[in-house]
Structure formats: C-alpha cells, structure tokens
C-alpha cells in the first residue's frame, strides 16, 4: 500500500510517497504553502506543482495512494483544514483518505512515531504543542516574533543585537558578537545595523539568521553568547513546562511524556538539552526528551499510515532514514 | 529682542516666537518634521507652513527675530544639522543666527533652563541623552522599538500584550489588562489581537498607545500592570545610570547632576520617580530629578536666548508658563 505525506512550511513544502515498510518511492520540494501569509491561490499553485511532480516520478504508485496526510504551517483552524482538504482532494486519486492538520502534529510524530506527546519547535519562530489521549490538544506560544517566540532563532538573534547595542551604550558586557556581526554586514560601527534591522519586511528572517553567530561565539567561550543560549534553553523549558501543566492539569500522575525537540535550532541541541532537563526535573515532570532521527515529513507519512491502520515499526524508521538521506 | 524656538518631532512640530521676558507673541503647530522618516521635501513644506503662520500672526516681531533654535527629532548628524539650518535660513529674516540640534537638547533645557545635565525622554520611544561642560555629549538607547526603547510607551504597551498572551497560554498571572485591551478593540478572544499587532506600519504606535491601559490597571491595583510600570522605572534608571557613568567616567566626583524626565509617559511620573530615585541612590550617584514645568519648545526658546547672550530668570519661566497655558 502507498501513502503520501506532506510537510508544508513557511519557507518550503516537502512531499514524500512511501509504502508501509518506509520505502520512499518519490519525493518533491516546492515553495511555501502557508495560506495565512500567501493566500489560497498561490498555495494551490505550489500544491499542484508538488503533486504533479510526485505523480510524474511514479505514476503507478501515485494512482494507488489510499491515505494522505498534510501537516500545514498555519493549518490551525477547522475552516482552513476543510478548505485545504478540498484543495488536495482535487489532485489526489479518487477515494484517497485525506487529512490536513497543523504542522506541529507531524513534527511531534517524527519523534514519537505517531504517539501522543509534546513537541517544542524552534526554527525562525517557535511553538510548543501537545496531544494527549482522545486527541485532546493544546498549544503555548507561537504568537510570532513581536511577542517573543521563546527559544526561537529570532529570539536568539534579537538578543544578540540587543547585546551589541548594550555594549555600545556602555550598559552591557563586552562580546565578540559585535565584531562577528559587524564583519558579516561589512559595517564599521554599531549604529550602522539600524537600517538593516528596521527593514521591516525582512526583520524577522534577518534577526533569526544571526543566531548562527551566537552559536559560533558561544563555542569560542563568549560569555554573553553563552548567556543568550542559556536563556533560550530556559525559555524552551518554561514553554514545555507550561504546556504540560495545561495539557495534563486534571491528570497530575500522568505517564512519562515524550517531549520532541524539533526545528533547525536543535542542530545545536547540546546547548539546550541539559538546561531543559534541569528545569523539567526541578518540577518533577516525568518527561523524556527526544531529538527526532527522522525529518518532519516522516511524521506526515506516519500519520497517513496510522490513518490506514498500519503500525509503525523500527524497520520503518531504518528504511525511511536510509532512503531519505 | 525677539527669538524663535522650534520643537520638531515625529508626530508634530511646534514653533514659538518669544521675547527675553518669556512673553509669547505667536505660536504655530504643524505636522512631523523628521527628515529620516519623511524626506526633506515634506519637511520643507511643513517648515514653510510653520514659519509662514508665525510671520502672518506677528509680522513686525518676526522681522526682528535675531536668534533661532530648532531641536529636531532625527537631527543627530552634523550633515543633517547643516542641511536643516540652510532650510530654515531661507525663511528667516536676514542676519538671524540659526542653530539646529537634536530635540533631546531642548527637552533637557526645558528642565535645566539651559544648563548642562541629563535628560531621559519617554514617549512612544525613549532616549537618554546628556551634556556636560565644554559641550561634551553622549547618549544611551533610542535605537527604536525593535531594540526595546527602555521605559518607553512602546515597551510598556508591549509588555502588556505579552502579559495577556502569557495569561492566555497559562504561563502568566491573571490580569485585568486582558479585559481592558480586548474591550478596547471589541474582541472576544486573545488571538484576535494578532492581526492588530502585526499591522507592521502601525505596530509601534498601536503598542505604545496601549500603555494607558497599564496605568489604568495599575491604579486599580492590578499586580501585573504594577510590575510592568516598576520594570519601566527600573529600565529608565538603568539607562540614566549608564549615561552618567559614560558621560562622567573621568570625573567620578562630579557635582549634582540635574536629570530631566521628559515626554508623555511622565504625565504619570509618580509610578517611576521613586523607583528611579532608589536605584540612582543605591549607586551613590549625585543627581536631582526634575519634572519640567515648561514644554520642550520652551527649551528651544531658552537655547535661542542663550545664543543671543540672555540669562534665563525665574520671571521668564513664570511668564512663559502663563502665556503658553
């Protein structure tokens, strides 16, 4: 049997056609598909491109796809889910089961292999999301960069720029972030950063992209950079803590909760995992941190397989990892 | 003798024609005149309108103006000062002495009556600025809302919205700010605030305008609101402290420094003055806080009078206050 999983994001959208052994038959990548920021017309164009590509690569398998799951960035409201479902259905084989959900769901499943649990995603932005039995769900954060996006790339880059201006103003400690970031923009002095930061259409992405200099500076022992990463870890933990307390408020003696840490920021997970563990242990929250071995789109494939009644096995992970790498 | 003082801001520009006794002969208000955000063409139109109005109200006095001072928002760089001076000169009587400076200078003088000192301005944004003997100057902050603008209306409003989302997420304390601000926008639920906050052209002004609900909630005893105002006072104090340490770094035993608190946020100064005093006293900084009795444009008139060699007396303050009210 064949299933199709999609991970739709704010920067790109990935689709994978797979069988129940985790063998990948075709794969395609197109542009962003968040209807909130792009509108449905542009989203439809990208989705058509994606499904056309997968169909053309493996027409026979595509015709036999019986289960489909798309985790879509911005796919939060029931109305959006229905509308997106209708859109996908137009391009899928007749009779194929279609499910559209928030992209936090497949990020979670990429770590829990389809089981309930909690996911904290830190990329450019951040969100904490959880599902417990009976599909009860809740979220914390994810309100965008102006409200902080705790532990996100934006929040790390933003703190870096603040630290640079604090040093310049004589309020803050000395930091090598200043030379790293001024050099990066070929600038001679700190106020030169102002027009770059206030290019409002790009502010979010630019500040988030500066997070890499914070890792670099921290690796070289810079105290300010290390503090920024420590603070990010604290924020992640506080969001996870708040989510668990909210999700399990009527169930204080819950089983150990898997907590998936997903998103680009966790390529440098070593800076955060010990801080998160320490804070969660302090509150006696029974959790198990998971750094997923599989990409978020694997979570979509898993959701599609579950929808078709297939149990996920270790051999699935093994073969998906091999084919997708 | 007659002088002309101008206070040029990001939202409006005020001009006052005055004599050395502080008697006001004419007064005009036009739109914003910050060349950084508007461009010189629009600034020239407003300036012409302002000076035309003052001339038409009192043509005889206008013809006898011998000294002119304009404190201009964004008038920071020497190049801008020169260009603005040239612009004013075109519309002023021949031979009139013209000086253009940062608008923090006249805000300072509105409290020190032309003496050196420190000013912290908190309106929509914030900046801390100081002048010591020999016209040595420095600044701290004022880097705009994305970098925090410590103690500003923006920072207060921003914290209010964060507190509302934290309460909603189950991370933060309960606060009446939620009902105040949801009612204000006729909203039924917290996420409804998102499109309002992310209207990027207005985000800064909208968040700053919400500061009034923080005062309202604090007056009704709301703990979250009181904490936000306390934090703003702390930030103001830390900026003032940093500025003094920077400005007088080679002069630890300086005389008592006047610290002027200017800008709209200080209409509710009682929330901040005790916090600022406590923090500055803790550091044994010899300062004297001043809440100016005169508006910022009076500082411009004072600067114009000083330029003409006139000493400012108490009777000046008395009569300016009477005429301007």
Description:
Chains A, B: InterPro entries: ATPase_BadF (IPR002731), ATPase_NBD (IPR043129), Euk-type_GlcNAc_Kinase (IPR052519). Chains A, B: It holds the Pfam family BcrAD_BadFG. Chains A, B: This is ATPase BadF/BadG/BcrA/BcrD type domain-containing protein. Chains A, B: Residues 4-301 form the ATPase BadF/BadG/BcrA/BcrD type domain. The structure is a homodimer of 325-residue chains. Chain A is built from 14 helices and ten strands. Chain A is of the alpha/beta class and 325 residues long. Chain A folds into two domains: 2-95 and 294-324, ATPase, nucleotide binding domain (Nucleotidyltransferase, domain 5); 114-292, Nucleotidyltransferase, domain 5, CATH 3.30.420.40. Chain A is globular, with a radius of gyration of 21 Å. The model of chain A has no long low-confidence stretch (mean pLDDT 93).
Task: Map the helices and strands.
2 copies of one chain form a homodimer.
Chain A: E1 2-8, E2 13-19, E3 24-30, H1 35-38, H2 40-57, H3 59-63, E4 65-72, H4 78-91, E5 97-102, H5 103-112, E6 117-122, E7 126-132, E8 136-140, H6 153-169, H7 177-184, H8 194-197, H9 203-209, H10 211-219, H11 223-247, E9 257-262, H12 273-282, E10 287-290, H13 296-307, H14 314-324
Parallel strand pairs in A: 1-4, 4-5, 6-9, 9-10
Antiparallel strand pairs in A: 1-2, 2-3, 6-7, 7-8
Helix pairs in contact in A: 5-13, 6-9, 6-10, 6-11, 10-11, 11-12
